[in-house]
Design goal:
alpha/beta; 13 helices; single chain; Arc Repressor Mutant, subunit A; globular; 7-stranded mixed beta sheet; D-Maltodextrin-Binding Protein, domain 2
């Protein structure tokens, strides 16, 4: 039995909560994964996996084995990166996650990091705040981007074990269609506009998303809204803002996908509440406009987080160095936060 491989299969099963998906993630067959886990149980003399017609979770003994498995896999990755990396040339995997509304920033960060250090292979995942924090606490994640005001919440085992690096303070916008500009007129204008020098500049492009005048949360509550589902922390922030404005909201559409939020506005007759980083991803959609939400003004700090009191890998060291650089912080400011009108 290959112990490390079996422990990796156990970690994959815990992550995917499905034998078939875990096997696919490990590039093996489902029977091979099941046999490896049964061999692991025989080796330790305990039942690790609750089995029924489908995966039913881990036993208490299985959770204990999983915790040790993640520590062993973490140490193995540290050793692999130390042996394969050269000075200034880190190599290895880096598992990162973000809350859904911060995925645009994390994806941008991963792309910049990989371009600078081609030996680093980032994995970018979208997770809820609870999943993200659990991933950090159990060493299933190396780095995460999320709501740092939650950083002080107790980690697994009752201790707070996360460091944070603030990145931006999010502002919120109402995203809606620009009713005053009919789609047919925009298409005609787009086809008739000749190419000219400097036309690539954002300030000269009439098809850019318009950032309009502010709108109150109470007024926004009267519009048909597409919102994230109630278990998402972003939804809790938005619901609290509506409540503070004395408004009640009955969403027209609910989703756990931020992509669905934007597409619902593009393809339907609903509006959505989005933070600046998400609004930035549709800057090229001239048929849309984003209105800053006020009364109350909601500001939410977003930052990177990593496990504390854990030796970072070479890849994580490179990532932590880059996220604190002025050039990266300036880039974050240009693609999140208040999103000032471009001139």
């Amino acid at each position: 039995m290959n112990l490390l491989a079996s422990l990796r299969y156990l970690a994959a099963l815990s992550e995917h909560k499905h034998f078939g998906r875990a096997a696919a993630a490990c590039h093996i067959t489902q029977p091979a994964l099941s046999n490896a886990l049964r061999a692991l149980e025989a080796d330790f003399g305990v039942v690790i996996v609750r089995r029924g017609r489908a995966f039913a979770g881990l036993t208490p003994e299985g959770e204990t084995v999983l915790a040790s498995a993640r520590r062993m896999l973490h140490e193995h990755e540290l050793l692999q990166q130390a042996l394969k990396s050269e000075a200034g040339r880190p190599r290895g995997h880096l598992r990162m996650a973000a809350v859904p509304t911060a995925i645009p920033l994390l994806t941008r960060f991963a792309a910049r990091l990989q371009a600078r250090h081609p030996g680093i292979v980032p994995t970018v995942l979208s997770m809820s705040s609870v999943e993200l924090e659990t991933g950090l606490d159990t060493l299933a994640l190396d780095l995460a981007l999320g709501y740092i005001e939650r950083k002080g919440r107790p980690a697994a085992g009752g201790a707070t074990r996360r460091n944070a690096w603030p990145q931006t303070v999010e502002h919120y916008f109402l995203l809606r269609r620009r009713e005053e500009v009919p789609p047919a007129s925009r298409r005609t204008a787009r086809a008739a506009t000749p190419a000219k020098a400097g036309a690539g500049k954002k300030s000269a492009d009439p098809q850019d998303l318009h950032i309009g005048a502010s709108i109150g949360w109470a007024e926004a509550a009267r519009l048909p809204l597409c919102l994230l589902t109630p278990e998402m922390h972003n939804r809790a922030i938005i619901d609290r803002a509506f409540a503070d404005a004395g408004a009640e909201v009955a969403p027209a559409i609910e989703t756990n996908s931020v992509l669905a939020l934007a597409l619902s506005v593009l393809n339907g007759r609903v509006c959505a509440v989005l933070p600046g980083a998400m609004v930035d991803t549709v800057r090229g959609q001239g048929e849309l406009e984003a209105l800053p939400l006020v009364a109350p003004e909601v500001r939410t700090p977003i930052g990177f987080m990593a496990p504390a009191a854990v030796k970072p890998s070479r890849a994580l060291e490179a990532a932590l160095a880059m996220l604190q650089e002025p050039t990266w912080k300036a880039e974050v400011g240009g693609h999140s936060g208040a999103l000032h009108k471009k001139r």
